[in-house]
């Protein structure tokens, strides 16, 4: 399965696995480094980073790491190792910042997972390679990457409002925004080469930023 995987992507996956297993076995460790609004708003900003290397269970971990494995090489092949790391960690922090903003009045809200970072990598991959096709569970036909990107973002917005499942939708959304912005910053030629897809992926992000307050009041 790991044939052809980039060394840096593999190291990031291994780090997630090691720290997540530690969290599985030691709740005090998980509790110390998970994202929690009241702690982050205090003097424990490091939780915005450390929470991205923890997961609640094996399914959560495997899903995130599989998506990272599937999309990480695309970003590195187009941009290189350093830009990949910038997008990964930048998206992780963007996911935490958006989560903090969205749940700022919920001091006990907590979350873990690499979802923000991985979402940023997914969005970066779609921007860099909009012609990609994705196969999803239970759907036998490929879905164009840009349609998946817009759909994913809209689902995250819905999930934030309805609190669908035990999923950090705000981190997904913040990470996708981070990945979108950082990829364009690192590779601005995309404004010319993939302009239509840049606009298509930007529309739901702009609508969200403009109407975020109304979303919470609905």
Automatic annotation (TrEMBL):
One of its GO terms (biological process) is proteolysis. It is found in: Membrane. Keywords: Hydrolase, Membrane, Protease, Transmembrane, Transmembrane helix. It is a multi-pass membrane protein. PANTHER family: PEPTIDASE S54 RHOMBOID DOMAIN-CONTAINING PROTEIN, RHOMBOID PROTEASE. It comes from Polaribacter dokdonensis DSW-5. SUPFAM superfamilies: Rhomboid-like (SSF144091). Its main location: membrane. This is Membrane associated serine protease, rhomboid family. The chain crosses the membrane at residues 6-25, 74-100, 107-129, 135-158, 170-190, 196-212. GO terms for molecular function: serine-type endopeptidase activity. Coiled coil: none annotated. Residues 44-186 form the Peptidase S54 rhomboid domain. It comes from the Bacteria. GO terms for cellular component: membrane. InterPro entries: Peptidase_S54_rhomboid_dom, Rhomboid-like_sf, Rhomboid_protease_S54.
């Amino acid at each position: 399965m790991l044939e052809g995987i980039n060394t840096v992507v593999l190291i990031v996956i291994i780090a997630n696995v090691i720290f997540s297993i530690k969290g599985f076995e030691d709740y005090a460790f998980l509790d110390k480094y998970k994202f929690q609004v009241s702690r982050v708003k205090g003097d424990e900003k490091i939780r915005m980073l450390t929470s991205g290397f923890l997961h609640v269970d094996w399914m959560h971990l495997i899903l995130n790491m599989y998506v990272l494995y599937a999309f990480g090489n695309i970003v590195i092949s187009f941009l290189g190792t350093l830009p990949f790391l910038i997008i990964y960690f930048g998206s992780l922090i963007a996911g935490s910042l958006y989560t903090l903003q969205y749940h700022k009045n919920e001091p006990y809200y907590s979350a873990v997972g690499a979802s923000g970072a991985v979402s940023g990598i997914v969005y970066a991959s779609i921007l860099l390679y909009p012609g990609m096709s994705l196969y999803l569970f239970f759907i036998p036909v490929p879905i164009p990457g840009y349609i998946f990107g817009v759909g994913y973002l809209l689902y995250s917005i819905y999930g934030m409002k309805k609190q669908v499942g035990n999923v950090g939708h705000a981190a997904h959304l913040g990470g996708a925004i981070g990945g979108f912005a950082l990829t364009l910053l690192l590779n601005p030629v995309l404004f010319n080469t993939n302009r239509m897809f840049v606009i298509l992926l930007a529309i739901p992000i702009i609508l969200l930023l403009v109407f975020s307050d109304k979303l919470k009041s609905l």
